[in-house]
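Suppose a colleague, Dr. K., hands you the sequence of a protein chain of 264 amino acids and asks what its three-dimensional shape might be. Before reaching for any lab equipment, you can write down a predicted structure in token form. Begin with the sequence itself:
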Amino acid sequence: PLLPDDAQVVVELDLARLRANAVVGPVVTRALARLSGDSHLPGLPFATMGSPLAAADAFVIAAYGVGTASAASVAVLATHGDVPGGVQIAPGLVAIGPDGWIGQLEARAAIAERSPLAAPDELLRLRAHAAPAGRDTAVLRVTARLPFDARVAVARDTGLPTAPARLSVWADVEDDFAVVVDADAADPGDRESKDAALRLATALRGVFRSLADDPLVRALGVPNSLVDARLIAKGTWVRAIVAIGPDHLARAVKRASELLGGAS
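The predicted structure, expressed as tokens, is then:
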């Protein structure tokens, strides 16, 4: 609710839930602690700056004006630790980003102290789109509403032949791990043919195959989970489901722990 209006991409990571998980928690905790002060996580527009993620309970990043000259992003961490370069906008909440955007967060936080704020209903509906029925928890959520310029930029940066107009991603871990990706090939109100959804499904399949060839994915032993992702096209929407079962996840965690124990 504190994010300025019109966020085009919102990524949420529940670090406390990840660390508390009996299967992945120990290796996640070690991995976050190993991030150095000048680490730069892929996809994030800033260095981890002394690994504030290691002490944070939650992390949210929002992007605005994607694909335009006014593109900007702002991040908020739920943490009681020190975040170099961060600004405390409320007790337990620290923001990182351009001064103008930090000012907007501070202003909204001040309003929220007097009167509760709510995120836009349309954004919340899209956020919930990929979540299975009855599942309110998640370790990762991605919500994106991409106008034309943003779609062009995303397609260019990712190598996709086409980018979705709307995106909802949900992922959670218990003794297994599951990811649901819902992508809409058409702009709201624009009912394109099924060809758009089929093209997007083909693009997503290509993304999963590319990820499966990543050296780290192969080292963890999970490429087949990506290659075998289930894709369902319905109207202009495409749903992709990636699942890693309990035994498979346990093996991946064991391999991750071994990788962290090495010198690399």
